[in-house]
């Protein structure tokens, strides 16, 4: 392979994006073997389409789009999950509001601070993995991968309004799960935390 | 300019934090969040929470065998 040739160019893309794509694939499939297969198939499809990939455009978003399409086509369980639009619980910043209004936490100190400290010990990964698929994908692409709403809309092939609705609902559900965790957790004092 | 009520700011807060609002609204919310004792801590909480989520979900790197598998596959094609 010579630099400047498509194969060399593509190999550089693989090196650059492999870890990120694998991390997201693992969060989507929740299974290491399936994640590896998904990433392999993504690169295979990407290579086949590489000739038509417009150089200088966002390669990362392009690869994520192929990853999501491949995932939706082959790996997600049959039948789409219905888009849940729940009339209740449309409150944003669920966790902040719960923490802020908690008399119990207020007696122990700064409620927001306590909740954030407890979440440091929470299994955030598991809470994220438990989100319904559409919401999980939006949260992964925004909060972990840092894509803009517009990029996520392109990656998922849905309108921006749908991205926002999935993302905000996903965040709320995640915050709800983290609130349940924080509320159940025993208060650990800063002294105990440092292990002295 | 008519001041936006806090309830409205809370509704736009995630879009503000995600830097998805137009420049004028972004400036307006930045000022509101800086000056408001209710919305300031709310915005700070959301940003710290996101940082914690990112920190806790760093993920694992791809296994070496996958890297080799993909690169080998490309050589075959």
Brief account:
Chain A is 70% helix and 0% strand. Chain A is mostly helical. Chain B is mainly alpha-helical and 77 residues long.
What does this structure look like?
The complex is a heterodimer of chains A (196) and B (77). Chain A contains 11 helices and no strands. Chain A has 196 residues and is mainly alpha-helical. Chain A is elongated and about 65 Å long. The mean pLDDT of chain A is 87. By secondary structure, chain B is mostly helical. Chain B has 4 helices and no strands. In chain B, helix 1 packs parallel to helix 3 (39-56). Chain A binds chain B through residues 7, 10-11, 14-15, 18-19, 21-24, 26-27, 32, 36, 39-40, 43-44, 47, 92-93, 95-96, 99, 112, 116, 119-120, 122, 124-125, 128, 142-144, 148-149, 164, 167-168, 171, 174-175, and chain B through 10-11, 13-15, 18, 20, 41-42, 45-46, 48-50, 52-54, 56-57, 59-63, 66-67, 69-71, 73-74, 77.
Q: What is the beta-strand fraction of chain A? A: under 5%
Distance between the termini of chain A: 57 Å
What is the overall number of helices of chain A?
11
> What does the largest sheet of chain A look like?
none
Poorly predicted sequence stretches spanning 5 or more consecutive residues of chain B? none
Question: If you average the pLDDT of chain A, what whole number results?
Answer: 87
Query: With helices defined by DSSP (H or I, 4 residues minimum), what is the helix count of chain B?
Result: 4
- DSSP E strands of chain B, number: 0
Radius of gyration of chain A: 20 Å
Largest interface: A-B, 44 and 32 residues
Category from helices, strands and their pairing of chain B: mainly alpha
Measured as a percent range, the helix fraction of chain B is over 70%
The biggest sheet of chain B amounts to: none
- Write down the overall geometry of chain B: elongated
What is the 3D shape of chain A? elongated
What's the total count of β strands of chain A?
Answer: 0
Oligomer: heterodimer
Which class do the helix and strand fractions of chain A yield? Answer: mainly alpha
Order of helices and strands of chain B: HHHH
> Which percent bin holds the helix content of chain A?
over 70%
Rg of chain B, Å, rounded: 21 Å
